[in-house]
Amino acid sequence: MQQIIIHVDMDAFFASVEMRDDPALRGKPLIIGSLPHERGVVATCSYEARKYGVHSAMNIKEAYRRCPHGIYMHPDFYKYKAVSDQLHMIWNTYASASQTIALDEAYLDVTETAKDWAGARRIAQTIKQRTWDELGLTCSIGLAYSKTAAKTASEEKKPDGYFEIPTAEDFVRLILDRDVRVLYTVGEKTAQKLHAAGIHTVRDIQMQAEEVIRLCGKHGRWLTELAFGRDDRKVTPYRPEDAKSIGREVTFQQDISDYAVLQDILILLAFCVEHRARRVGLQGRGITLKLTYADMKQITRSHLIPQTDSAVTIYEETAKLLEQTAHRPVRLIGAGLYNLTGEAEERQLSFDDLFAEEGTAEEEARHMLLQGLQARYGLDFAGNLEKIYHYEILHKTVEYMRKHRRNSSQQA
User: Fold this and answer.
1) Is 105 a catalytic residue?
2) How high is the pLDDT of residue 6?
3) Domains in the chain, start-ordered, CATH in brackets?
4) Shortest CA distance to 76 belongs to which of 395, 402, 400?
């Protein structure tokens, strides 16, 4: 039996949630991300802002240049996550398998639940209606025979759209003379490589399949399959253990040259990474440190460690990596875990382990890290550590630390 797949994609999700909660924002160019005077990028924006050429991942200064009269807001990821959970509860009701792609996006396999195309159409329309009736938000839906076609279909009539692509022949007819970027796995660099070789459209990929494979290797072979509408991938439910890494990073409003401050910021990032890892029941066997210097040069340092989800270990190991880097002004710092697993690692207990009070050393080390932040910056996280998991509070705390250290140095 041919697969029947739905791709659901919310329309300007973050912005739509904010406009729903504050009707005064409706119809205005709303940009979610950094503020114009800050460093950073656009997370998403309303369709009114997109008319001015603003788009996600755009540098916030460029967004402000294009749309100086826009309304700029920081994202509230906790709010968006709560709404996302409600959305996925609605969507998953109708699927035999659901693959979450993002907070606002998912593939649904409705082959068995719908029985036929007419049934799938009814499910799609029901999802759209419930999403609006229960949450006051619009979504765009693509109904198709494959994942690639379903995603393409959901983009066809945005916002609040619905589109069907029943067969591979229908898919090819739709995209044949479009730019290669219509194939969603073709990014900017791949498109440039193909364009330089005279391959501009999907038809060109079909006609020059061997050249595409030569240029792009395994990915090129996959592109040639997609160009002919061939995609038999299944909807695979997301499992936390499938994640490749868990990390957290912050961009500073002014570059930081004081590496003592960077080490202290790593403490906060380590607790954030621990929180994320424990929330999904994962541990890592690798630690990573990411830096972006003032000249925009990026470096990543990593090494393997015994399996852990401990903030203390994450901090200690990333701090060691930081000490080994060139001491230059830093624009961004990040910490993370990789080589993830959901299974706790067994180890042989030592003699000391048998007689030690469980968790004492770990808890003491955690206490010492937080006590150090309190002594140096007056930050008291006793009973309030969860505050720094919030995007905006973390960034405000980091900025406070940066300014506090600078002022202390000047007074000294």
Assistant:
1) yes
2) 98
3) 5-9+80-227 (3.30.70.270), 13-76 (3.40.1170.60), 240-411 (3.30.1490.100)
4) 395
Euclidean distance between CA atoms 101 and 58, whole angstroms: 21
Catalytic choice (105, 164, 274, 317): 105
Tell me, yes or no, if the pTM score tops 0.90.
Answer: no
pLDDT 10s digits, 300-345: 999 999 999 999 999 999 999 999 999 999 999 999 999 988 755 4
Query: Mind listing the pLDDT tens digit for each residue in 235-269?
Result: 998 776 667 899 999 999 899 999 999 999 999 99
Q: Is the pLDDT score of 381 beyond 90?
A: no
- The answer on pLDDT for 365 being more than 80 is yes
Q: Which of 252, 259, 249 is nearest to 294 (CA)?
A: 252
Strand-pair partners of 113: none
Residue 237, C-beta contacts closer than 8 angstroms, at least 6 positions apart: 97, 98, 99, 100
Q: Tell me the backbone φ, ψ of residue 254, rounded to 5 degrees.
A: -135, 145
